[in-house]
Amino acid sequence: MTETPRPAEAPASPDASPPPASVRSTVHGYPRIGPHRELKRASESYWRGGTSAQELDAVAADLRRGVYAQLREAGVDDIPSNTFSYYDHVLDTAVLFDLVPPRFAPPAAADDRDEELRRYFALARGEQGAPPLEMTKWFDTNYHYLVPELSPSTRPRLVGDKPVAEFREAAEAGFHTRPVLVGPLTFLMLAKAADDAPEGWEPIGLLDQLLDAYARLLGELRAAGATEVQLDEPILATDEGRAAVGRLERAYQRLGSLSDRPALLVSTYFGSIGAPALRVLKDSPVEAVGLDLVTDDEGVDDLVQVSGLGATRLVAGVVEGRNVWRTDVPAAAATLGTLLALTDELTVSTSCSLLHVPLDLEAETSLAPGLREALAFARQKAEEVALLGRVLSEGADAEHTGGGGVRPPAFTDARVRARLDALGPEAYERPQDRGRPTEIPLTTTTIGSFPQTPELRRARAAHRRGELSEDAYKRILREEIDRVIALQEEIGLDVLVHGEPERNDMVQYFAEQLEGYATTSNGWVQSYGSRCVRPPILFGDVSRPEPMTVEWTTYAQSRTDKPVKGMLTGPVTMLAWSFVRTDQPLGETARQVGLALRDEAADLERAGIRHIQVDEAALRELLPLREERRGEYLDWAVGSFRLATSGVSPSTTVHTHMCYSEFGLIVDGIEALDADVTSVEAARSRMELVRDLGERGYKRGIGPGVYDIHSPRVPPVEEVEDALRLAVAHIDAGNLWVNPDCGLKTRGYAEAEQALRNMVEAARRVRADLRR
Fold first, then answer.
1. According to its UniProt entry, what is the function of this protein (predicted)?
2. Does residue 89 carry a catalytic annotation?
3. Which domains does the chain carry?
């Protein structure tokens, strides 16, 4: 969530560049989960065997038609298709072009829909004998994609028809759509080399072969009646993408020169792409280029540097696609007025896909009026781009359209600001002579949450509705904590957790108890697969009125002689997984959250808790896509974490946790956090970070995850043992912790119990060998 830049000023003489006859409107993509999370429920029912493949496909078709109808109703001119996915659009692209590792057996019959879906979901979730693809964050968002595994022997070829089938389906329903595809450059640069690939080989080596497959697909889309296709290339907003100008030119000269193709829109987002890349696209045969003009303020400068786009149509992303604040229509119209001098043809759009925001503000009835009026979800943002298109086409006065930017009432807390101003450098430092967190080599623990049973979820919902008394609800929570503590002791874990039965979500739980936050009832956003979250809205100064976790953590500690970890969500993650105010720098907001967490950590310590985990799952996620901006980010990100954790004594062990991101870029940041123990995802990424840390001589505690909790697959003891032996080869065993990749909330007890037993047994075996 970045600060919204100031729009470019309108030209001094707008009449000098008369508006084109028609300015059209579009969006890059749209939420696909349904207004009531229908896709989640249908998918999970299918995985359990309660829904047939035909029933699942019928739900999906209804959701797609609903999206097309909603966009038409909003007034959007050009409607995208192929933005739907059962799990992930990058995975869809891999399957479409037969880029599937050989460990996933192909369907026995080409027309067996159940077998086709089995293989598809196995790639995402794994199956016995076939670990899933690695999963990581989609650029700097909280959406997760599946990482394709490629090798020199991989042969890209078009084997699927999903984009064509969904285009035809929309046409039969009366909607002419623009199919959306992951661009070839982005797909290959986000892929990884398979384990059997030669050292130094990179997937981009398959570019020419993949372009042949794209060429065939474009021909089939043209034959089906598509007049334009969108190719998403967000990789161009990164340093790596900006450096690939030669490959960009090769790709779009090749695709643009095809004689049998629809018009091509190359869509870029999550930041500016730089003048060199923009010049390549301008000079290529593609018909349109989409630019994100919200994330940073360089996009218009790039256009000026290349002397405008001329005959290449500009799809101008002036409506924020990743945050929920209403667009300032007059300011956006002024920006668009500037752009009319830099292109012959203009389309108004969102800055990126609306996948990253909730579906419809109308579903929210409990938000405070002053705040609600300042918000726009996906449906409202579609209406905003349509409105801006009409403003430019019809010459309407933007000031009187009813779409002016509205901000919530100012909410500042002088006490919070005074406390922060009074802090000195010592508030960010812990003593360095802290000793080891534990004397046990390969200390076993979990990340925090345990499976949340249907009974527990029903009790929480009943309590929220007022149908279950406070006393009855707390009794249920205590019984669940008793069960979780007893189970961990019986399994043999060394450091325990209370299981978090009282928490709905690791961010929302704290947002509900902090001043300055608002939460939604139906503001669901897809995180990965069927996993949906409700990001809270951080609109004001943050403070903690009272303790948030002490009651449940101390109750759990009273039930065991083993140490129990206190569990907090860190300041960076509290921002990354929220929709954040844009009227002050992110770093200042993060410090406010860090100060509130500092108070909570102190209360936990006073209550006798000697292990406190402050999760920063999103530390890598918010890392700017360009290196020149990373130093400033890491300064405030690390500073807010240290503010939250430096108030406890040297004898208290500070843990942190990070998941499902590529951590190699932030190893310095991880060390700078100064946590005693850092647990990280490592099961899907084959212990890559452990090797990086070992090469650097990392001396703090590290807990590389050995159990992939996003898969129903239970890893056998031998697999976990092999992972631990690899870790021991790089990190001193006294500094190694053994844990799952992430919390267990989304898993069932049967699989989680067995996986933890296997994990503890594997640690026992490796420990035994170390003693010999």
1. Catalyzes the transfer of a methyl group from 5-methyltetrahydrofolate to homocysteine resulting in methionine formation.
2. no
3. 75-99+133-398 (3.20.20.210), 442-771 (3.20.20.210)
